[in-house]
User: Fold Bacterial Ig-like domain-containing protein from Nocardioides jishulii.
Amino acid sequence: MSSALPGSALVAAGAAAPHVGAARIPVPPGVVVSDPSLSADGVWISFAGAVDGTSGLYRHNTATGETTRVTTGVEDRGGSVAQTSTSRDGNVIAWTRHSAGHSTGWDPASQVYVTDVRWGITRLVSSEVVDRTPGNEGSAEPEISEDGTHVVFTTRATDIIDKPFHGAGSGAGSDVVLAEVGGRGESLLRLVSPDRAGADFTEPSVNPDGTRIAFTRNASSSSASSVVLATRASGSDRVSHRDVAPGASPSLSADGSSLALVRPQREPGDRPRRATHLRTLAAGSEVQADVEDKGWSLTGTSATPVADRDGGTVLFALTRDTGTDLVVRDVDRGTTRTVARGVDGEAGHDLSADGDRVVHVSGGQLHLIDLGRLPAPQAPAPNAMWNPLVQRSATPARGRGYVLRVDPALWEPLRASRIERQWLRDGRVIAGASGLEYEITAADVGSEIKVRERLHVPGVPVGVATSRSYKVKPDLAQLRVPAKVARPRGRKVSLRVRVRTLPGSETYVKGAAVPQGRVTVKVGRRVVRATVGRNGWARLVLPAQRPGRHQLRVRHVGTPYVRAPAPKKVTLVVRRGR
Assistant:
């Protein structure tokens, strides 16, 4: 018998086999297990068990191997235990009691309880404000904070807090409520979801001290599902809300810095699936978690993610045609491993806050996986799913060249990563060129430009991805001149020409080198020159000519950045009259 635990010990201490990787947890004969939950350190497992039509709350100590049925004091009310949630020390357990005969879907008669095994006390949390009787509608989905002082849950009741529940009061809606359950007194309930009529708020997740609560705002006719984060000061009724991201099934990391969630995605062939993501709240950044080691999405649809203390490890269920597996993704090191196959997906699973242990149900039996004792996969260098791509940019150049840009590599999703980027000329480093854009210089013409990316992730080899070569060629110049110019005798002739540039190494895009160079024309023995402005225009002032028709040849003199076009002919007509 476990100390300070009301009830009888059903499996003797030491009866459990040592956990080497994965092991089945011994439970009383005939007990069918569901809804397991782990304490933060993975020492305690709470679960629901049913035998011969009788449901009960159980607790297992992984250190001693002892499994005990917990006396709740409400066994005589019938119904079934479900949805357990365990505090850090394993002494406080939140759970749902479903009505007799309930199977799936929402139970309008379900209620949320908290059992403190130290004191042998079970209290109804979802109780009516005045006389503490069960609420007038169902409550479920409890999650207890690590310190055991706060419980969040979903409810459709309208009489368990002083202010009306706008979501639940509309019939189809539901609300998220926070209950303070510390000590041995009555619970203090607060509404933490927004006051929105008809809204459906579900799937709450709470941080260790109850100051951050994430939950799902379910899809409506006007919007898709999204995850909402509620933040409050300790002991305060004031709650602020913000939409975090599209998705559902949030799981807050214990430190409150990250959350795992699922959202719709499309598989190849346009088949719908649900994908698991890990979001860092402060940065607003996300990485996909249900991916292979190389970063490509896993086949199947994922659900019910659980994040560890800092979000570095995410556990999720992956359902394929062959059944449901449990998969663990290290989003910092980039390793993915299937830790259990053929599990009971509807019976639940959990991950300890330290990320070392997984509990799940298979065939009605309870199983514990010690991730620290499984062969740890070797973390390979991060994989670039697509290499960088160098191409012409539309950004105007400051000098006389043109600008190249790189589309960054698509790396496998890793959270704690840092990219180092370097531009290369014929394989050699270009000093100071490490951004997303690079303006070519005269030294680059005729060379091959590449971009090399290095992805640095703590604890794993450096990933390297290099783009294909971009051959730097001069741009093309187009020379535009009038076909004929007529002037009276004795006057100087002003000839305006225009130079336009086009990319010389690819189809037309914006971002060619600016018009540049010089234009020349030979008049008699004289050569007249003019510089092309950045607007493309040049003005040639020709000396006076004798009357008649003169054939002039206008040439453009190229630069390292612009290749000269063919000369153009201009007919100069000098009239005899003034």
